[in-house]
Design goal:
Helix content of chain B: 25-40%
Strand content of chain A: under 5%
Oligomer: heterodimer
Low-confidence stretches of chain B: none
Radius of gyration of chain A: 20 Å
Structural class of chain A: mainly alpha
Number of strands of chain A: 0
Strand content of chain B: 25-35%
Number of domains of chain B: 2
Shape of chain A: globular
Helix content of chain A: over 70%
Largest sheet of chain A: none
Largest sheet of chain B: 6 strands, mixed
Mean pLDDT of chain A: 89
Radius of gyration of chain B: 22 Å
Order of helices and strands of chain B: EEEHEEHEHHHEHEHEEHEHEEHEH
Strand order of the largest sheet of chain B: 6-7-8-3-9-10
Largest interface: A-B, 37 and 42 residues
Number of helices of chain A: 10
Distance between the termini of chain B: 31 Å
CATH superfamily of the largest domain in chain B: P-loop containing nucleotide triphosphate hydrolases
Shape of chain B: globular
Structural class of chain B: alpha/beta
Chain lengths: 262, 302
C-alpha cells in the first residue's frame, strides 16, 4: 500500500456528493417517495373533483377539478420537500450514521445547500408527477410558467429548510410526526388548497393571510389561471421573506451544531 | 509540529439537574508516526476526548489541533487529516459497500478515488462484498467497512475508538496487521481499547484517563517497568486462604496473586498446600499492563 497524500479537494464536489446522496436516498425507494404521494394526490382529485365538480366555481370559467389541480400540486411539493430533509436527518441521527457526515470538512452552508437541494428535487419531482398524471383528467391551463416555476422552487426550498430544522430539533420519530401533523399539515390544508380564501368568513380570511403557505399556493395558482386572491408580487415578497427567515434560522442552527455537535 | 495536541481541554455536560465534568484539564500530545494508546475505564472520558478531536463534540475550554490545525477555527483542514473509526457499528442502509466508500470520498472532495477504494477493499478482505448492500453484511464485515470509510481520504491521523470490541479473533488479527502497516508507513494512530494486551503489544506510548483526568502518561515500556512486580498465576476451583484471598485478582478459575519477592512466592505455595488447595497451570511472571492499569485506577484521586 502506498502512502500518497490526498490531492487538495474542492469544496463543491463535497457539496455535490451530499446533494447526490440526498437525491439517491429517495430515488432508490421512489415507489414509496414519489409514486405513492402522486397517487394520494390523484385520489384527492378524483374524490373531491367528483363530489364538487359543477357545484363550485371558484374563479369564473374555471371548473373545480381544474381549480384544484395547482393546489394539489403545491401541496405535494410542500409535503414532500419537508419529508425529504426531515426524514433523512432524523434517520441519520437515530441510526447514528450522521457521524460520517459530521467528521467531514463540509461547512454549514454545504449541508444547507445539499439537503435543501435534495428536498427541492423530491418536492418538484412529486409535483411534476401530480401535474402530469392529472393532466389526463383536466388539461392544465397555463398563463405564465415563470410564476409557476418560481413559486414551486421557493416553496420547496422553504419546506426543505423547515424539514431540516425539524430534523435537527426532533430526537425521536414521534416528535417529527408531531411537527408534521400539528404544524405542517394544518398550515397546508388551511392555505387554500381546496378553496379560495375569499369563500371564507372575514375572520378566517384574515387568519389565512398570516399563513405563508397561503401565498405560495396563491402565487402558484396565478401562474395557471392568471387570477389570484392577492397580487402575485405580494405573494412573492411574502414567500421570499419567509424563506430568508427560515433559511437564516436553519443556517444558524447548523453553524451551532444544534443537537448534532454536543 | 505535533500530530495531535490537547491543551488544557475541559468538557462539562450541562444537564437539566446536574452537570458532569467529563474532562478536566487534559493536556498531552501525540507525535507524528506514533502509535498511541488511550486507556481508561468506562466513563473516564476517552470517547468524549475523541469526539472533541473529531468535531463531534465541543470542548468547554482548551484547544485541540490535528497536524497543527485547530479543530474549531480551522475545522476543514483538521478533519481532512483525521480519520475516525467510531465505536458504534453504524451504517447507511440505503447503499452498497462501494457506494458507501465513494460517497465518503466525495464528502472529502475526492471524486476519482476508486484505485484507493479497491486497495482498501482488498486489504480489509472486502473485495467480494463491494456490491453488497450494507444491511446484508455481518457485524465483522460492517466493522471493516467502518475502517475503510475512515481511510478513504488517506488521513495522516487515524483514530480507532475501541475497534475490536465484540470482534472475532480473525478480524482482530487482520485489523491489527493492517493498522500496524499503516503506522509503519507513517500514519499516526490513536487507539482506545479495553483489551490491554492489545495496547501493550501495539502502542509506543500510553495515556490513562480516570474521571476525566490524565493519571498516567508514558512510554509503554516505562509504564511497565515503573510498576514492575512479580505475579503468581494459577487455576483452582477452591477458596483461597487469607491473606491471599483478599490480595488476589480472580477471574473465574484463574487466580493472579501479586508478590514482592521469591520469599513471598514460597509463602503463598505453603499456605495453599496447608489449606489443601489444589492448583493447576502454575506460572510465575512479570506484571503486565493490566496490573499497571488496575494499580493506577485504584490509586486515590490526587
Amino acid at each position: 500500500m502506498k502512502h500518497v497524500a490526498a490531492p487538495t479537494p474542492g469544496v463543491w464536489s463535497g457539496t455535490a456528493t451530499l446533494f447526490r446522496k440526498e437525491v439517491l436516498r429517495f430515488w432508490k425507494v421512489a415507489f414509496q417517495t414519489v409514486a405513492a404521494p402522486v397517487l394520494t394526490s390523484v385520489m384527492y382529485l378524483l374524490v373531491f373533483g367528483h363530489v364538487l365538480e359543477g357545484r363550485l366555481e371558484v374563479y369564473p370559467g374555471v371548473g373545480y377539478t381544474a381549480f384544484l389541480i395547482p393546489g394539489l400540486v403545491m401541496m405535494s411539493v410542500l409535503q414532500n420537500s419537508f419529508a425529504n430533509t426531515s426524514s433523512s436527518l432524523i434517520q441519520s441521527k437515530i441510526t447514528g450514521n450522521l457521524i460520517f457526515l459530521l467528521v467531514t470538512p463540509l461547512s454549514p452552508w454545504a449541508w444547507f445547500v445539499s439537503y435543501v437541494g435534495g428536498a427541492m428535487v423530491r418536492g418538484l419531482a412529486v409535483g411534476l408527477g401530480v401535474l402530469l398524471v392529472t393532466a389526463g383528467l383536466a388539461p392544465p391551463v397555463v398563463t405564465d410558467w415563470v410564476w409557476i416555476v418560481v413559486f414551486a422552487a421557493l416553496a420547496s426550498a422553504m419546506l426543505g429548510s423547515l424539514g431540516l430544522i425539524a430534523g435537527l430539533w426532533a430526537e425521536k420519530f414521534d416528535q417529527l410526526a408531531a411537527f408534521q401533523n400539528f404544524i405542517i399539515m394544518p398550515m397546508t390544508f388551511l392555505s387554500g388548497v381546496f378553496y379560495s380564501v375569499h369563500s371564507l368568513p372575514t375572520f378566517w380570511q384574515q387568519v389565512s393571510h398570516l399563513n405563508p403557505f397561503f401565498y405560495m399556493i396563491d402565487g402558484f395558482r396565478f401562474g395557471f389561471f392568471g387570477v389570484s386572491d392577492v397580487s402575485p408580487f405580494v405573494s412573492l415578497a411574502v414567500v421570499a421573506v419567509s424563506l430568508t427567515v427560515v433559511s437564516g434560522i436553519c443556517l444558524r442552527l447548523l453553524h451551532q451544531g444544534y443537537k448534532i455537535r454536543h | 509540529m505535533h500530530a495531535v495536541e490537547f491543551s488544557s481541554v475541559s468538557k462539562r455536560y450541562q444537564g437539566a439537574k446536574r452537570s458532569v465534568q467529563a474532562l478536566d484539564d487534559v493536556s498531552f500530545h501525540i507525535e507524528p508516526g506514533e502509535f498511541f494508546g488511550l486507556l481508561g475505564p468506562n466513563g473516564a472520558g476517552k470517547t468524549t476526548l475523541i469526539s472533541i478531536l473529531a468535531g463531534l463534540a465541543r470542548a468547554t475550554s482548551g484547544r485541540v489541533t490535528v497536524m497543527g490545525h485547530d479543530v474549531r477555527s480551522d475545522y476543514a483542514a483538521a478533519r481532512r487529516r483525521l480519520g475516525i473509526v467510531p465505536q458504534e457499528l453504524v451504517f447507511d442502509p440505503f447503499f452498497s459497500v462501494r457506494e458507501t466508500l465513494r460517497i465518503q470520498s466525495g464528502y472529502f472532495g475526492l471524486r476519482h478515488n476508486d484505485d484507493w477504494i479497491d486497495e482498501l477493499l482488498q486489504a480489509l478482505g472486502l473485495a467480494d462484498k463491494a456490491q453488497s448492500n450494507m444491511r446484508q453484511l455481518s457485524g465483522g464485515m460492517k466493522r471493516r467497512v467502518l475502517v475503510a470509510q475512515a481511510l478513504v481520504h488517506r488521513p495522516d491521523v487515524i483514530v480507532l475508538d475501541e475497534p475490536t470490541a465484540g470482534v472475532d479473533v480473525e478480524l482482530r488479527q487482520t485489523l491489527w496487521q493492517f493498522i500496524a502497516s499503516l503506522n509503519r508507513q507513517g500514519h499516526t494512530v490513536l487507539l482506545t481499547t479495553h483489551y490491554l494486551e492489545e495496547a501493550e503489544a501495539l502502542c509506543h506510548r500510553i495515556a490513562m484517563l480516570k474521571s476525566g483526568r490524565v493519571v498516567a502518561l508514558d512510554r509503554t515500556s516505562a509504564l511497565l517497568a515503573g510498576k514492575a512486580h512479580t505475579g503468581l498465576t494459577f487455576k483452582t476451583d477452591q477458596e483461597l486462604p487469607e491473606p491471599w484471598a483478599a490480595r488476589a485478582r480472580v477471574t473465574g478459575r484463574m487466580v493472579h496473586v501479586r508478590v514482592h519477592d521469591t520469599l513471598e512466592i514460597e509463602r503463598v505455595l505453603t499456605d495453599l498446600r496447608q489449606a489443601g488447595v489444589t492448583v493447576e497451570d502454575l506460572e510465575i511472571g512479570r506484571s503486565d499492563l493490566e496490573d499497571v492499569f488496575l494499580d493506577i485506577m485504584q490509586e486515590p484521586r490526587p
